[in-house]
Sequence to fold (292 residues):
Amino acid sequence: MQILDGKIASLSVKEQLTQEVQQLVAAGHRAPHLAAVLVGNNGASETYVASKVKNCAEIGFQSTLIRLDAAVSEEELLNTIRGLNADNNIDGILVQLPLPKHISEPKVIETISAEKDVDGFHPVSVGRLVQGLETFIPATPYGIMLMLEHYKIPTKGKHAVVIGRSNIVGRPMSILLSSNHPYGNCTVTICHSHTPDLAAVCRQGDIIVAALGKPEFVTADMVKDGAIVIDVGITRVEDATAKKGFRIKGDVSFDQVAEKASYITPVPGGVGLMTIAGLMKNTLVAYKRTLK
Ligand code: GUN
Fold:
């Protein structure tokens, strides 16, 4: 069994990005600029956004964090996005999800200019992904593809089982793995809460992507010997013995599944770090388009 280490793989992507930014800035261009919008103070969202901002600084991107109160009106948020769309100094826009219940996520996502949609959630980006056209790939599935590429894990002809059908991970992941490119060409099954005998379906997977948000859901009996196991879960589970009062758990029961898997991603230290690498790559692409 080999650990797929997100620290190592993301560092390699970040080093390439850092070099490219240094060359662009040395040639007299401004630095790429990501705007992140955080509504309210959900603890997990705060952590993710802080990490995105920190990573921007590390690779030489500029970033702007816009914090809005949880009670902000939908119209005010949409106007903030419209302002960022119109700002020629901003290359990428992300609005951290989830949003408070009174705000329509689809409306927010559609308001972000498709040219600045570095999260890849806009219907235009998703449509292009489905059609195999160049696009912004949602950061987590993109990060997983970068991880497979970093470790040169062949996927062609394999059966991939994706658990979860969210717009953020499961569905785009299933499209990427089935697409005709070097780390695709899988036969893909997508499972969800209405899948009968999900364990039996999982056992058929040469690759399992667990993205349902249920801590330690995937157990050893659901995994075929030698499977490649990608754990997307990051759930905070209360634990009085932990310093922060919680621990981060993945969707996979790591210790038992690791004994059967050929490759496995840890949580933390796996897919989460690759998500940021994917986002940063998208931001650089959005920026480079403005130079043309
Ligand atoms: N919430 C969970 N994952 C993501 C992500 O990749 N982007 C945004 N904007 N929100 C998220």
